[in-house]
Design goal:
heterodimer; A: about 280 residues; mainly alpha; 2 strands; about 70% helix; about 0% strand; globular; B: elongated
Chain lengths: ~280, ~260
């Protein structure tokens, strides 16, 4: 273990501040390539790229580092979706995990990084969306509307000021807190020798969250019916609800296991979706 | 008119960049958008009136998860410009805002589908060791395509008049709208499958199903499931025998191959 241990210098004060600002801006920009397959995956990769680049500085000359770097880049292309403001926390935490993995490649299971991301993104989007899209936005624009109705330009200005302050605070301090807390927590886990166990348990949380997202975020139904009495969807619902989303997800998983090219699967999703809709099978 | 059309197009681009690059800080809200259009067209009061009317409609629209709501940026920018340039009332502006917003939602879905190919291109570039190129899809090409998606329709609408927008909206067949809608539900399923690929094994598939059924039957939110999951795992931590290194190595070995 010792000979493989890589030397990763901790960040000094100035580098750290720089890093926190990069979490901030890159969380704000996390939706710049929002897409239907990975959602904010490229945004997350962009956010964590500076950390990875710093951990494997000799990738061009050292094939082992190159492999590690490629692996890390690919890891963060996995599906990700979270409120931009709360993403900074996930970005900070994942960065500290990537550093931990680079330091202890034998003790740290890198798959746990995505498990942590996945477990966090559900709850943090839930809290983040309802706070920023719900509470803050409604408060800010409710107040702004009052002024704007009287024809005052103060309306939009006040609405924006109320919107920006909490957004700024949560994003900046979220990233900072994720990074520092992650560092401390991971050190304790490694010291106690319970990393594997912790990672297994984290994976369980991640999988339960994915299961819950399959049930709540896909929502494919079938309009097939015979006359007025037989509706296929209600029959399926009596067996168990959200059956079609589960079946479609496992079908995709099966295709992936069969090593079908992912570009083909994507094309299948689009063309298949349109065809099944036209045939009246899915809605 | 050319200069005004360009400026208003840029306002629309700014409104979209709010959620692309500025963490959805609410610049995209109709009140702000209409006000900016009003300033550029020299009629702030009208801009505010239309903005208030649209804001009251769109305040209820929440962008959550993967669903694409009607596009309020495109709707409010074009509708405000229409109201000011053709000297109509705010109510008339509303009738144009909604079809435009739905048109925006449609091209938004198509663009977001197309952008999934960037993921695959980035994947190939990473294989080839071109890291800079892989990062650029996100920060350069993403915003450029999104910007075009807003600039072009707004520019055309303001320059040639809003009639052209309405006739385009009328031409799109319903089967295509519905079909794209279904496709936009299937694609996230693929995303979840990709995630499961690295985490799922024969022994752990049960946890995925637990999470699924809690939400499917109990209608509990993802947050609730996450809280239960964390608590459950804490209990498991108490119950499981404390043998380091045994659980995870087993976990890594078996895949759900026979499924």
């Amino acid at each position: 273990m010792t000979e493989e241990k890589m030397q990763v210098k901790p960040l000094n004060k100035k580098e750290q501040r720089h890093r926190f600002w990069s979490f901030f801006w890159r969380s704000y920009a996390i939706q710049a390539s929002w897409n239907y397959e990975g959602q904010m995956n490229m945004g997350f990769l962009y956010g964590i790229a500076p950390t990875i680049d710093r951990l494997y500085p000799d990738a061009e000359t050292d094939p082992e580092q190159m492999a590690k770097k490629k692996e890390a880049y690919k890891r963060h292309l996995a599906l990700y979706n979270c409120t931009p403001q709360t993403s900074a926390f996930v970005l900070g935490l994942s960065s500290s995990m990537e550093e931990e993995y680079a330091k202890n490649p034998n003790e740290f299971n890198p798959e746990s990084i995505n498990a942590v991301k996945t477990s966090l993104m559900g709850p943090l989007s839930g809290v983040g969306d309802s706070f920023f899209q719900g509470t803050v936005r409604v408060l800010a624009f409710g107040l702004g509307l009052n002024f704007a109705k009287q024809g005052s330009i103060l309306g939009p200005i006040i609405a924006m000021i109320i919107s920006i302050i909490p957004s700024f605070l949560v994003t900046y301090y979220g990233g900072k807190f994720g990074y520092t807390a992650g560092n401390r927590f991971l050190k304790q886990l490694t010291a106690a020798g319970v990393m594997d166990r912790a990672m297994h348990l984290i994976t369980i949380v991640g999988l339960m969250v994915i299961g819950s997202m399959i049930a709540s975020m896909i929502g494919i139904t079938t309009p097939i019916h015979m006359g007025k009495t037989f509706k296929l969807q209600s029959t399926l619902d009596t067996i168990f609800p959200e059956m079609i989303p589960l079946a479609v997800t496992f079908f995709m998983y099966w295709l992936l296991k069969k090593k079908v090219n992912t570009s083909w699967i994507m094309l299948l999703c689009i063309v298949g979706g349109i065809v099944l809709s036209v045939l009246g099978i899915f809605a | 008119m050319l200069v005004k059309a360009i400026l208003i197009g840029l306002i629309g681009v700014f409104g979209n960049m709010d959620s692309r690059l500025l963490g959805r800080s609410n610049f995209e809200q109709p009140l702000v958008m209409s006000c900016l259009v009003g300033i550029v067209l020299g009629d702030l009061q009208k801009g505010l009136v239309v903005g208030v009317a649209l804001e009251l409609i769109f305040l209820g629209v929440v962008n959550i998860g993967a669903a694409a709501p009607p596009d309020m940026v495109l709707g409010s920018v074009i509708a405000t410009a229409f109201a000011i340039l053709s000297h109509t009332t705010a109510q008339m502006a509303l009738t144009i805002a909604l079809p435009v917003a739905i048109f925006g939602q449609m091209i938004g879905i198509v663009l977001r589908m197309f952008m999934a190919t960037f993921s695959h291109m980035a994947d190939k570039d990473i294989d080839a060791g071109k890291f800079k190129k892989a990062r650029r899809y996100h920060i350069v090409w993403g915003p450029i395509l999104y910007a075009l998606m807003y600039f072009v329709p707004i520019f055309l609408a303001v320059y040639f008049g809003t009639g052209i927008v309405k006739s385009i909206v009328d031409v799109i067949p319903k089967w295509l709208t519905d079909g794209l809608n279904v496709a936009s539900k299937v694609l996230p399923a693929f995303g979840f499958a990709l995630l499961m690929q690295t985490m799922l094994s024969k022994k752990t598939v049960v946890y995925l199903l637990i999470g699924f059924f809690i939400t499917a039957y109990g209608k509990l939110s993802v947050t609730a499931v996450a809280i239960f999951a964390v608590l459950m795992v804490l209990v498991m931590n108490e119950v499981l025998p404390k043998k380091p290194n045994s659980v995870a190595s087993e976990l890594a070995d078996d895949d759900l191959e026979e499924l």
